[in-house]
Amino acid sequence: MTQTHVPVIAIHGGAGTISAATTSAEQAQAYHDALKNIVAAAQAMLLKGASALDAACLAVELLEECPLFNAGHGAVFTHDETHELDAAVMDGTTLAAGAIAGVCHIRRPVRAARAVLEDGAHVLLAGAGAETFARERGLEMVEPSFFSTEARRQQLYRVRGTGRVVTDHEGATMAAAAAATPSPLDEDKKFGTVGAVALDMHGHLAAATSTGGMTNKRVGRIGDSPLIGAGTYADDRTAAVSCTGSGEMFIRVAAAYDVCARMAYGGATLEAATHAVVQQSLPAVGGSGGLIAVDRHGNLSLAFNSEGMYRGHARGNEAPLTAIFA
Ligand code: ASP
């Protein structure tokens, strides 16, 4: 196996507003530790020659299983106090993609998205049909309560009382919420999507994203995460991108695809392309959040216009780096 590229992995665990509550060093450390361990697991795979697609899927699966992040177990609630999960994966080599939306029984949504990609007949399956497909594929199914945590339920009650869907970092302060929250980013003003992008040693790119969506969202609402081109995109000729933020705005500006298009059509560098999308296109429509992206040369961009974004990355066999704030 010829190693021609230094592999790169990057992950995010959502973007958001710094909590008004004081965050203890221990609390922040829990996030750093989780991010670091997950980056290290994907990094080890890449160093053994695994594909970018496998590494990105593994990282997202581990993030889904970690209750600190709002995807899989720990997902947020809809207005009706239910869960509706979305996920997507994309292979930059073939432009093959798979996604599922609005599911509530699939334990690891990213695995179902991967199964849709591998099946190849469709790109996006939603609701009951997606769940039937996952069942047929032998994926682990759970009761919706598996995803529930008390903290998320209380979060819904606070947000529902305001009549808002939490898509606005600049919205009303929810101090009570912050006070009860042990997370560096204010749980009520944070986007909890998780995602990963990878470049493997064969020069291939992949992206994966998974989310519980937005707290207090209307039942049936689908965000940017499972929409190829909006929250997730990968193309070996340009970059792999996974987004987190106010999904409606990411959909409207085709955020993930726009990064790649700026590179392909305008010759923009990854840095310039992500900066334009995150600091110009998204704010122009009121979009808040960020994205992680890696290009075919291994350049990395972890960009956000919110106060913080849980993130981590590793290049080659270098020690993983993690960060929460700017
Ligand atoms: N982008 C996600 C959505 O709109 C939310 C998030 O990033 O946490 O569903």
TrEMBL record:
Provide a GO biological process annotation. proteolysis
Q: Which UniProt keywords apply?
A: Autocatalytic cleavage, Hydrolase, Protease
Instruction: Name the site position(s) for Cleavage.
Output: G192, T193
Q: Which domain of life is it from?
A: Bacteria
List, in alphabetical order, the Gene Ontology terms for molecular function in this entry: hydrolase activity, acting on carbon-nitrogen (but not peptide) bonds, in linear amides; peptidase activity
Residues given in the record as substrate binding sites: R221, I222, G223, D224, T244, G245, S246, G247
**Active site per database record:** T193
> Is Calcium among the key words of this record?
no
Matching CDD domains, A to Z?
Answer: Asparaginase_2
Q: Does the keyword Hydrolase apply?
A: yes
- Family annotation (InterPro entries): Ntn_hydrolases_N, Peptidase_T2
Q: Which PANTHER family match?
A: L-ASPARAGINASE, N(4)-(BETA-N-ACETYLGLUCOSAMINYL)-L-ASPARAGINASE
In Swiss-Prot or TrEMBL terms, this protein is called Isoaspartyl peptidase
